Amino acid sequence: MACKLPYFTEGEVVKGFGRGSKELGIPTANFPEKVIEELPEDMACGVYYGWAKVDDGEVYKMVMSIGWNPYYDNKKKSMETHIIHTFKEDFYHSNLKVAILGYIRNMKNFSSLDELISEINRDISEAKQKLDLPENLEFKTCNFFNS
């Protein structure tokens, strides 16, 4: 992961593969291809943590997968953001802003769906801990989320 962090981006929430909520029980907000194409060339595929804001809502902790998700053998690169908050309803077509602050792990394949879900839950737990650190908490209130 050579890309310099933090990395800030935003875009419209679009329909993804439909697996996050239904199959994994871990809903994700997906960015359109245009946002993915604008990622720095040196941003490695993997799992990241940071902050996210939907429209004019609150800023919440998030964990994000960037890549091809080997378990599902994706043909398209995706940016799937799991916001660590329970929303009452879907927010497709909303504006999602994210501040990507740190890297958790590389993309990898899993032998079962249960193994994948367990790993995602470990990622979420690690993201929560890292985002409580003072150097990461300060980004929750940065100007990016208020503009």
Describe the protein's topology.
Blueprint: E1 7-12, H1 20-24, E2 29-30, H2 33-37, E3 46-54, E4 59-67, E5 78-83, E6 95-105, H3 113-131, H4 134-137
Largest sheet: 6 strands, antiparallel
Question: What is the CATH superfamily label?
Answer: Riboflavin kinase-like
Structural class: alpha+beta
Q: Largest beta sheet: what is the strand line-up? A: 1-6-3-4-5-2
As residue ranges, the low-confidence spans are none
Number of domains: 1
CATH class type = Mainly Beta
Helix content: 10-25%
Question: What would you say this structure looks like, in words?
Answer:
- The longest helix is centred in the last third of the chain and has 19 residues, at 113-131.
- The chain has a 6-stranded antiparallel β-sheet with strand order 1-6-3-4-5-2.
- With 147 residues, it is of the alpha+beta class.
- It is built from 4 helices and 6 strands.
- It has helices spanning 20-24, 33-37, 113-131, 134-137; strands at residues 7-12, 29-30, 46-54, 59-67, 78-83, 95-105.
- The chain is globular, with a radius of gyration of 14 Å.
- The chain has one domain (7-146): Riboflavin kinase-like (Elongation Factor Tu (Ef-tu), domain 3), CATH 2.40.30.
- The mean pLDDT is 91.
- It is an enzyme of class 2 (transferase).
- Its EC number is 2.7.1.26.
